[in-house]
Specification:
Layout: E1 2-10, H1 12-23, E2 30-34, E3 58-66, H2 69-86, E4 89-93
Antiparallel strand pairs: 1-3, 1-4, 2-3
Helix pairs in contact: 1-2
Length: 96
């Protein structure tokens, strides 16, 4: 098994859309959204003169088991394509 961890910055709807796309891959053993272990303290953008209009945007972490490196690469390719089409920020990480 090859473990793939994905961190997505986007809304709940965008995270659900990515989950749906990844669930369509037939040989994935396990796919779930997991809690990010990084502290989720309130972002105080006022001190940096930044807008926090995107308050519903959050970080979503996904973990899945692929049967091998080729399947893991298919997952990454499909996730990147979906992120690009939706204008999302996506990264593959070794740990959350």
């Amino acid at each position: 098994m090859t473990l793939v961890r994905i961190r997505l910055t986007g809304t709940e709807d965008e995270a659900d859309k990515l989950l749906s796309v990844l669930h369509g891959i037939s040989d994935i053993e396990r796919l779930e959204e997991v809690d990010d272990l990084i502290s989720r303290s309130r972002d105080d953008s006022s001190s940096a003169d930044l807008s926090d209009d995107d308050a519903q945007v959050g970080v979503h972490c996904f973990e899945l088991d692929a049967p091998g490196n080729a399947a893991a690469q298919r997952v990454q390719d499909l996730a990147e394509l979906t992120a690009h089409e939706q204008g999302l920020v996506l990264e593959f990480v070794e740990r959350f």
